[in-house]
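Honest question from a wet-lab person: if I give you the sequences of every part of a complex, can you actually get the arrangement of the whole thing, not just the pieces? Trying it with mine:
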Amino acid sequence: MMTLAARGLCVSARLAGHAVAVLRDLDFAIEPGKILGLVGESGAGKSMIGRVLARSLPSGFAVSGGSLDFHGADGKVSDLVAMDGAELAHLLGDRIAFIPQEPLTALNPLLTLRTQFGEHLARLGVPAGDRNARIIDALKQVRLSAPQSLLERYPFQLSGGMCQRVLIAMAFASNPALVIADEPTTALDVSTQATIVQIMRGLQRDHATAMLFITHDLRLAARVCDEIAVLYAGEVVERGPARIISQDPQHPYTRALQAANPPLRGPLTRLVTLPDQMPGLSALAGLTGCRFAPRCPTRDPSCAVASPELRLMAQGHWVRCAPACAGFRPAAPSIMRMSAEASASEPVLVVDTVAKHYPGKRDWMGRRGQGVDAVRTASLSVRPGEFVGVVGESGSGKSTLAKLIMGLEAPTAGRILIDGHDVTAASTATRSIRLGALQMVFQDPQSALNPRRPVVRLVTQTMEAARSCASDTERLARATALLAETGLPPELINRYPAQLSGGQKQRVNIARALCVTPRLLVADEIVSGLDVSVQAQILNLLLDLRTERGIGLVFISHDLAVVRYLCTRMLVMHQGLVVEEGETDAIFARPQHPYTRALLAAAPPDDLDSPWPPSGPAQETLDAMA
Amino acid sequence: MSLSPRAKAAWRRCLTNPRVVTGGVIIGLMAVMAVLAPWLAPHDPQEQDLLATLLPPMWSAGGEGRFPFGTDTLGRCIASRLMYGARIALYVAVVAATGAMILGTLLAIVAAYFGGWVDWLISRAIEVWMAFPPVVLALILLVGLGAGVNKVILAIIVIDWTRFCRVIRSEALVVMVRDYIAAAKLAGFSHRQIMLKEMLPAVLPLVITMMSIEMGIAVIVEAIMSFVGLSVEPDVPAWGVMIADARQTMHQAPWGVVLPVGAIFLAVLAFNLLGDGLRRALDTRLVLGRAEAA
Amino acid sequence: MAFLTLQLLFRRLVLAIPILLCVSALVFAILRLLPADPVGMSLPPGATAADYEKLKQAFGLDRPLFEQYLIWLGKLLSGDLGGSIFFRRPVNELIARALPATLELVSAGFALGVIIGGAGGLAMFAMRGGAGEHALDGATTIMMAIPEFLWAILLILFVGVSLQLLPFIGRLGPGIQLPPPVTGFLLVDSVLTGRWDSLRSALLHLILPATALAIGLAPLVMRVLRSSLLETVQDDYITQARLRGVSERRILLRHALPNAALPAISLIGVQGGFMFGGTVLVEMIFAYPGIGNLMVDAVRNHDLPVIQAVALVYCVLVLGINAVVDVAYMAVNPRLRLAGSR
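Yes, you can. This is the full assembly:
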């Protein structure tokens, strides 16, 4: 007995007259009460399923084969692809429900929760008199406290986590046979993620719902799902029970994906990275044979000729790979973790109890509203060659701290010292001290790279500034050296940002910061927008820079695993305060502050036998935060 | 320096956009006609032929070949007057729109970049300006300045800088929060360098689009002012003057009104099409607005 | 809700006071600093220097500029707008007689423009991609390429002169008596006093000038509503509503339209203010006895007190309509409403 089954589903895009399969021969089946995880990096085609069902494929894209069979309660099997639109609309929201990726934009901003939830219940045929009670009941089930008071609220008055709970409650209101959750926790903080997953799983178990869980996070999928299908460039490369896929994957891509993810526990080894990135649409058009072959560490000439079929490895475990590859084991990587060898030297940067208060807006009478304490108080110091992590969730003040360090904002209290010079107040002198010692790598290369500058003029932008009038040949030479240092091919030198991939852009971003040979980089969430495999490349680049240049780093991130991989020391920020500071290993082993403990508990551990989502006091802290 | 692929693509999109091409061709033809008016026009625009007043265009009954578009109450050649009128219209369009563009863009970028009290002051000034219907402000400015084409140009600049400033300031504010502005600050760029090298190029597509629309507005404002007799000297032919003169005899000779109205329509249409096409080709987010002129 | 709206409106109007002060100073400065000589122009030919000085004193033009402004402002606040140099009548009286006519005209033009614009925008969206959309798009392009005053002339020429369908001079037909004045608004007074003949005539006289004004507003509303609808239907909550099986009709009317209307409303606020500017020439062309006509007469005769006063009245009207539309916008948008009531 199946709820949803895809049989040879193909979606093609038309590109310069050719049809390119962006989803090729997709096969899967979900039973009632089971969760199938669809795991893939961006561009793998994992969000196409949702678009096929919503009939909202981008223009030029179309289903070119196969079927998506939905088994109704009455035993009727209907193909969701071929089905008439009105009939499909009848199923949607009732038998098939969705949980979206961006909870904050998924609710109509002009309508109250009561109106929107009520509209849904009206469509389900709930009589008007019963709707209020049903809404309150549903909101209670997703553990929203004081549901009565939420009814007249608008979506923008709620946090992302609260909106997502409301959407989950709406999805399960009709007791659907199938729920499709498309990256339901990606837009949320780590601490919220655990709660959302717990609520979602609880409802799914109670209703024995079949669920399709789409995510980029293999570790999370291993926790949530019964079965996992790994997508690469529109193909399922490996499919099987969640435990097997996460513990003993057979396909080189799945293995690489796993190896690129820094662990939260156990010894740290240097991440193994794949070259390049997933082929885009135009690259796929010219690709014959195995789509993973160009990046595959074990490919042989035959891979480029024929596309391999899915082979059965064990009970329910399928791999799309030539027989020779599957047995491949990568060389055991070296164990790393250097002790803080530079601890004797004087710190490059000292941040001494800085604070940043943004005054509130004046109202119509000229009275000032309440301001925001973005950073209430924070101190840190960084020695040459030291990597310090700053961990916090959205609103913790970690990005404001970066701006204060860089002098992009002026602190309202405290001091900032570089090499012992006070640079708190902005002046020409302090600017030149900063320029010589500190540089920043920005979070979003899309926003940080001027789209109108070619790479050569981007990375050598500092040489263009007033005092140092560098010639074009000097700049070209410097740019070439910087590209080589950041692992970028030299032919990119005259390209524009729009012609670069996400990983390449972030390398350009780093290269620009290195131009003035700073001793300390401040990096604000520089890998959060990247896929795991590209993230690993960037992390390794930063480690290499430390070895070669002895450069220091203030690494701001929400991702505990990444901070653990890079940094010897770390700070935890919460609501503008540094709540914990110390050696990374010590904090991971013995977290002191309840917030740190909750944060650590919220991240899904690699070990599938340790319980997650957490229970007990950590869960209560998380619930209070979500 | 070679163009970036982005700029090249933008150029290609502009030159293949039917609206841009149509608008450009109409404006081009009008400009040629205006420049070559002394050679192309069949008559001197002031030359009166009191024996041939209110002649209809040559294609209708009673029309004469030597007055292709007919004559007005004083027997002046309408075709010649239209050509000479185009000189005034295009002169005002180019000079006034350029002036308003420069002043408005400059203040917009300065306001967005420095923020604080500079922005406060410029924003409040815009609010005060916006309280006036532009025609009313133009009328009182011309009462104060005295009539004349160059006074009209000055009035348009003084009034319409706000139109640029408002739109470009909000676009510049979007650019300001992009990290590449912060990156330029960290690279040691001076204020002037950031405004000229980073911000101006980013708002340029919008400036170009608005410039085209502003030229259409300037044509309208000039027509209004010459219609009420505050623009050109009485002996200079302008489209607005022609309409005002012909209005008296509209019952007998409707073409005397329809033809200059058609000329204004064609000029404004061309500038609007150009602007609309540029907006699409350069992908700027701008709502085309003409009615603000009146 | 009603109380809240009134409260918001009050606040918005309080905020307009400093702007109005700046506006009055600006008007005063332009008319006094610039090289116009109202005294010389209002003297009969052959007047002596003594006559000149006498008149100058009578108008108070011999005092320092700042003092003149304060005196003028003081009188303004007490409701005294001075006397017209040309009409030789108090300015108050002139404006009081002309203003209701303009307000009637603008209200009619505004309503017509919003209705045509809203319906046209919805129609363009409904016919998107088809021939109907192209036709309407072409119509907006033509409407926008001709300014109101030329529309006024064309309407008179084709509808008034050629087809003789509608009257186009003044507010009432010849031979029809004005209804006894109650409010000053012709339409209202006609209804109040049961004068159906003057109501009919006034309405017919309103059609052409109001249409000329509406043509300035309608195409912009159409375009903004269309493009904002196209954008809104791409929004996440629309997709989610569709995935919940909400009917397409309900999605459009309940979810897309209210969100898409927001930009159109704020555009109407700005353009509604500009519509008052359109009345200047339209009233003159239709010989419609409103403040626009008064303004043109005053400009032609360099009647400074009238020009000043009418310019200020225009600014008050613009700020007023901006405030009303702003408050309407806040009332529709809960985010602003809740922020505003805090």
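Two things worth pointing out. Chain A touches chain B at residues 406, 408, 431-432, 434-435, 439-440, 442-444, 447-452, 454, 461-462, 464-467, 496, 498-499, 512 (CB under 8 Å). Residues 349-360+382-590 of chain A form a domain with the Rossmann fold fold (CATH 3.40.50.300).
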